[in-house]
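Researcher: Structure prediction, please.
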Amino acid sequence: MSFLYEEKASSSSLVDVIWHTVDTSDGTYLAAADACWDIIFTRTGTGSRVLLSGPSSRPTPVPYNVGNRNVGVRFTQGTYFTHVEPRSMCDRTIRLPMPDHEHFELAARTWPMPDYASIDDLLAEFHAHGLLAHDAVIEAALHGGDPPVSPRTVERHFTRITGRSQKQVRQIARARDAVARLRTGEAIADVAYELGYADQSHLTRDVKRLTGYTPAESQRRDEPV
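Model: Predicted structure follows.
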């Protein structure tokens, strides 16, 4: 791994994980599909940048450069930014305007660049200003609940918020779960069985397609997913 990595939980229920990296060399990280929104704050030797990413349905190459310091937020599935049509951001990353190195613009407002210690404060401000919302129908469908709407309406929620069907979002979540288990040393055949794949070949196809790595490569990979 060519960067130092740490992560922490957030005080916000809308956040899956907050992470921080320091790049120790130049390289490219292959980010797996996640079907979630992400925001990444980077400080370089010459300035800063902020990237806002919508739900991804395929692996995405992410270049990095020695000395960069990054703070990232992965939001929970079903959480989205309200200032744009959510579906329009599927598989899309935009660079936010910055009037100077310490501020960025989002939803016609100017915000301060956060660090790893203060990122939760910024997320609380996003929420307070109505920039973050969560779709309860998607949450219920993904976590064993019974949404009080028709199956067709459930699908409309998924396609509007994530740009993908419920089936596709579940496939992405399962592939990420498979990689997490593989990285702890579980056998490929056992992971395929436990997660309900038809067979080991099915697991291999899905994991490769959605994360960019085969199960065997995932077992040896020393980068976070």
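Model: The chain has a mean pLDDT of 95.
Researcher: Thanks, that helps.
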